[in-house]
């Protein structure tokens, strides 16, 4: 495997470099069966979570979106080596690419689940407009996901998860499951950050939003 290019820990999604939406692939070429139900992971990082999910759940497709291009390049190489026909990755800025990417599906997009896990917190007040969950992203998800589809949010930083929840609560298309944080993930795989946080005995803040 070729060496990975230098990866920045933080990438400013408002930079002009990420202003143009990503080009959609031919979904019939990247997925063996593009009409299987689709799980979308926004900000997938190295892709380990969706890779493990695709390995364990063969009757779903998994799509990871990531703004750091070298990570996507590496993830696609590993996908090809493992011959995972139900897994794909796209380098993009989710806030301006989600709608055009999934609207390009040859038939009705089979999106059923979305996960946004441990996103970059952008702690400084002046940088918080760079956080991934913005009203426009929530609206794009609402336009693409059907009734009873759902969105999974989690972070080890309470402030970040509260803000993500606020953005989804503001959109009348979604309702929150329960009033409190959920104690467990519904998935058989964990992100690296999730596993490390739990090993340290620290809390993970989790919430699920259902499309009405």
UniProtKB/TrEMBL annotation:
Gene Ontology molecular function: tRNA (guanine(46)-N7)-methyltransferase activity
Highest taxon listed in the record's lineage: Bacteria
Pathway: tRNA modification; N(7)-methylguanine-tRNA biosynthesis
Residues where substrate binds: 124, 156
Alphabetical UniProt keywords: Methyltransferase, S-adenosyl-L-methionine, Transferase, tRNA processing
PROSITE patterns: SAM_MT_TRMB
Entry annotated with the keyword S-adenosyl-L-methionine: yes
Gene3D superfamilies recorded: Vaccinia Virus protein VP39 (3.40.50.150)
Reactions performed catalytically: guanosine(46) in tRNA + S-adenosyl-L-methionine = N(7)-methylguanosine(46) in tRNA + S-adenosyl-L-homocysteine
Enzyme Commission identifier(s): 2.1.1.33
InterPro entries in UniProt: SAM-dependent_MTases_sf, tRNA_(Gua-N-7)_MeTrfase_Trmb, tRNA_methyltr_TrmB_bact
Gene Ontology CC entries for this record: tRNA methyltransferase complex
Keyword Amino-acid biosynthesis in record: no
The protein's enzyme class: transferase
Binding site for S-adenosyl-L-methionine: 41, 66, 93, 120
Entry-linked HAMAP family: tRNA_methyltr_TrmB (MF_01057)
Function, as annotated: Catalyzes the formation of N(7)-methylguanine at position 46 (m7G46) in tRNA.
Similarity annotation: Belongs to the class I-like SAM-binding methyltransferase superfamily. TrmB family.
Family matches, as NCBIfam families: tRNA (guanosine(46)-N7)-methyltransferase TrmB
UniProt xrefs under PANTHER family: 3-DEOXY-D-MANNO-OCTULOSONIC-ACID TRANSFERASE/TRNA GUANINE-N 7 - -METHYLTRANSFERASE, TRNA (GUANINE-N(7)-)-METHYLTRANSFERASE
Protein's UniProt name: tRNA (guanine-N(7)-)-methyltransferase
Lineage: Bacteria, Bacillati, Cyanobacteriota, Cyanophyceae, Leptolyngbyales
